[in-house]
Write a structure and sequence with these properties.
Blueprint (H helix, E strand, L loop, with lengths): L2 H16 L4 H6 L5 E8 L3 E2 L3 H11 L4 E4 L6 E2 L4 E8 H31 L6 E3 L9 H10 L13 E3 L1 H8 L5 H11 L6 E5 L2 H10 L3 E5 L3 H11 L4 E5 L7 H6 L4 E3 L2 H4 L6 E7 L3
Parallel strand pairs: 6-11, 7-8, 8-9, 9-10, 10-11
Antiparallel strand pairs: 1-5, 1-12, 2-4, 3-5
Helix pairs in contact: 1-3, 1-4, 3-4, 4-5, 7-8, 8-9
Length: 284
């Protein structure tokens, strides 16, 4: 990951958390007090965000000693120590919440992605994310998806052409349909970008194929409809299944033969992994 980007995100998070400063720590913790803290997993999952946590502690106090015991991508169980931090107790306390917030959030995303990736093992489909990310944290959250065994869809609007339902609704107001939308994209967009179009029926999928789409997104289709679309397209274009996909049905979707399975819940609904910090202050 780009450390400069991490530092920018971390600095904003620290500014948000500090407000007028850590008045509690300043009031009761001696400035010279030293200690050691252990960052401990409290649940089973996949670890992500350790580098971000390190940056948090070092942005707060560069003299803190951060020892990483497990790296991103490691599976952790409850009670396992992830990292240790030594130095001024006041600095550790000021960094604690922000560091844990990043670790918990990113590890939650990696853990959820891992569950989906494991569920479709043995099939050619890839689990991919969406742009349904926390504002300002997309860079980190998409990294966590990769750590969990998933792949990234578009990172931003300039990453590729994706003609969705509202684009088509806007064009229909001018009497233009699916084929016209694809033709406009081919005419006006850079030739280096692939064109993906969202469809809701098998018939629309065939129409998009004939119009020259590079990727077709099968939106909120049943498993049987997806299977029919795969058969109709016959491997001539990349197919992406999206919408209504859960851990209960993702394997059935993969069995249809689609190439990509996009899941917004990887980032917008992943439950944070429970991780805590336990501090021991020096007695002298």
């Amino acid at each position: 990951m780009d450390e400069r980007q991490i530092e920018e995100i971390v600095d904003r998070a620290l500014a948000e958390d500090w407000g007028f400063g850590d008045v509690t720590t300043r009031a009761i913790i001696p400035a010279e007090l030293e200690g050691k803290a252990s960052i401990i997993a409290k649940a089973h999952g996949v670890l992500a965000g350790t580098e971000v946590a390190r940056v948090v502690f070092h942005r707060v106090d560069s003299s803190l000693r951060f020892a990483l015991l497990l790296r991103d991508g490691s599976e952790v169980q409850s009670g396992v120590t992830i990292a240790e931090v030594e130095g001024k107790v006041s600095s550790i306390l000021r960094a604690e919440r922000v560091a844990l917030n990043f670790l918990q959030r990113l590890s939650g995303i990696a853990s959820e992605t891992h569950r989906y990736a494991e569920a479709i093992k043995g099939f050619n489909a890839r689990i991919v994310d969406t742009r349904k990310t926390t504002p300002g944290l997309r860079f980190l959250e998409k990294y966590a998806v990769r750590v969990g065994g998933g792949y990234n869809h578009r990172s931003h609007l300039g990453d590729g052409i994706l003609i969705k339902d509202n684009h088509l609704a806007a064009l229909r107001a001018r009497g233009l349909g699916l084929k016209a939308a694809i033709a406009l994209a081919k005419k006006n967009a850079p030739h280096t970008l692939k064109i993906e179009v969202e469809v809701t029926t098998v018939e629309e999928a065939v129409e998009a194929l004939e119009a020259g789409a590079d990727i077709i997104m099968l939106d909120n289709m049943s498993v049987e409809e997806i299977r029919r679309a795969v058969k109709s397209v016959g491997g001539r274009v990349i197919l992406e299944a999206s919408g209504g996909i859960t851990l209960d049905n993702v394997r059935a979707v993969a069995e249809t033969g689609v190439d990509l399975i996009s899941i917004g819940a990887l980032t917008h609904s992943a439950k944070a992994l429970d991780i805590s910090l336990e501090l021991e202050a020096s007695s002298h």
